[in-house]
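::Amino acid chain::
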Amino acid sequence: MIRILFFVLLAVLGAGFANAQNAADNQLTLAPVFSDHMVLQRNKPIAVNGTGTAGSVIKVDFANKILHATADGSGKWKVVFPALKHGGPYVISVSAQAQKIVLKDVLIGDVWLCSGQSNMGFALQDAQTGPEELRTGTFNPNLRLLKMGGAISTGNVAWDSATLAKINQYEFFAGNWKTLNKASAASFSAIAYYFGKKITKEENVPIGLIQVALGGSPTESWIDRSLLKQDQQFAGMLGDWQNSATVMDWCRERAAVNTGNAKSRDQKHPFQPGYNFQAGIAPLTNFPISGVIWYQGESNVFNVPLHEQLFEMLVKSWRQRWGYEFPFYYVQLSGIDRPNWPEFRNSQRLLLSKIPNSGMAVSYDFGDSLNVHPIRKTEVGERLALLALHDTYKKNVVANGPIPAKAIVNEETITIEFREKEKLGTRDNKPLIGFEIVTVNGKRVSVNASIKGNEVVLNIPKNERIKTILYAYQPFTHANLYNEAGLPAPTFSMEVK
């Protein structure tokens, strides 16, 4: 009798667990990007999506319209509302059967995705101007923040079994929209904050910033793995990636520490090629954005040609997944005493001609010779904002420093002409420095340079034939050529013909 009762109890408990599991599976949900205080992209069709019971009818009430959808066999559903101009606040009401979700304080404006590695993730509270900004700043209610991530650290620690399991389920990036205040701003990206602050002020529309960044993450981790598979040169990344020379040593070493307790050889990691795309970017591709700001590359400096291919692939593939060619503005790496950085910075400059609708903000003049995380973030965020204001919002602002156009060789001098005929100068009116030449024999030397109106004149060393002009080509540089708008010339290399 006792045995019979035992099996009856097991059956009841099992049925209860199954019912609870089915209830969880059938729970009406919205995609993670939807929450109170969110910003939806203006002038684009507005998709609202989520999950529910397979076959159930979902009712969505928004902006005086009601749309219905039927959840498919896997429970997924989506409705698409027509585009709206900026405004709000709105309420979104989603219901199915006895379940209901209500989102409040929803604005329509421009959404910017802010991505990359640690310098994009660098918090406002840690920036040079952060404490004063948080103490005295005026927090615009039209600026909203969504910080994705932060629950799991990729620090120099071994993860426990629960964390390893979450990583394998791609449960790495998560967050909710916040209104702008001291608490929400403090831990948010400093660069993104200053970018959004300037855009909100100048454009006078709601701005939503989505931070999806991870310190140390290499470019390949942000690219769809299926695309990497299609190119044979990336095969080494995808197999035994933790022993591949195409992945930065530091990334592989840190991943080995984090996954030290893993039982499976297939344990995943956020530095793994394709991981951050699947975990952080793919879930957003149904959510329209205005554009991307990007600060990354420190984990790819060791292989400049490889990064060029990866970065082009990243931008192109993201645009394809969203379905349109949104602007992509990125930061030319800062100055630091490490090899390859000048070559990498110049490579980033050259990528502008290969990637349409892109822009680059210079940052080497706010670098730190020893620290890969410079604390001066205000100017970098504002320089990214100038690119967006000029190119995306069509404002009459200067967005770039002096951009070299051509070099004219005379007997004893080289004259460098720039793309814009603007007045040139130096910071604090100090003598112009930062120019070097490479001779046909491979000798590299600094040269005297002077500003003549809107041109730069270099003195050629006696009896030397010049092959290349270099500017700001020291890893950590004090190069000081600026325009009247106070914007610096980028690191560049120019062949002399």
